Amino acid sequence: MEARIDKWLWAARIYKTRSLAADACKNGRVSINGALAKPSRTVKEGDEVSVKKSPITYTYLIKQAIEKRVGAKLLPEVVENITRPDQYELLEMQRISGFVGRAKGTGRPTKKDRRALDDFAAEVPQFIEEAFDLDE
User: Fold this and answer.
1) Residue 39 gets which letter from DSSP?
2) What is the DSSP letter of 30?
């Protein structure tokens, strides 16, 4: 039995919707047996599917090619997670490191950011006075 990769990713509960699975395929985040996969590519039992979800790459072994979504309790009959342990170490390292990936200027500043801004704002007038001798 064969199934489309986008349908299988959705049915195996790797992606929440089929359109998210198809977008992942189109953007080169899904590969089958080492080759990039388009959403319409078919998979069969025994294929190895790699899915890049930042920061790690999950690897799954297809036990059953299905296109209808199954309950979470039936997943062990459909898919086997064979992701390498070093990938999970990457995930743990990112979790421990905190907000390292936070882009500057996005969202509300943290308390640390606000204090740094306050300290900078307090130093600027003194710098200007010293540079231009405004006391005279």
Assistant:
1) T
2) E
pLDDT, residue 39, reads 95
Q: Specify the pLDDT at position 96.
A: 74
Query: In a 10 Å sphere around its CB, with 0-12 CB exposed, 13-18 middle and 19+ buried, how is residue 48 labelled?
Result: middle
Return the DSSP state at 40.
T
pTM for this model (two decimals): 0.69
Task: For residues 58-80, give the mean pLDDT.
Answer: 94
DSSP 47-104: -EEEEEETTEEEEEEESS--SS---GGGHHHHEEE---HHHHHHHHHHHHH-STTPPT
Using alpha carbons only, how large is the chain's radius of gyration in Å? 25
Q: Which two tokens stand for residue 12?
A: 């195996």
CA distances 119 to 27, 54, 97, 122, 133, Å, are 43, 35, 25, 5, 22
State pLDDT tens for residues 98-118.
555 556 667 787 888 888 878
Q: What tokens does 52 get? A: 């890049």
Which structural domains are found in the chain, ordered by start? Answer: 2-97 (3.10.290.10)
Q: What is the pLDDT of residue 119?
A: 79
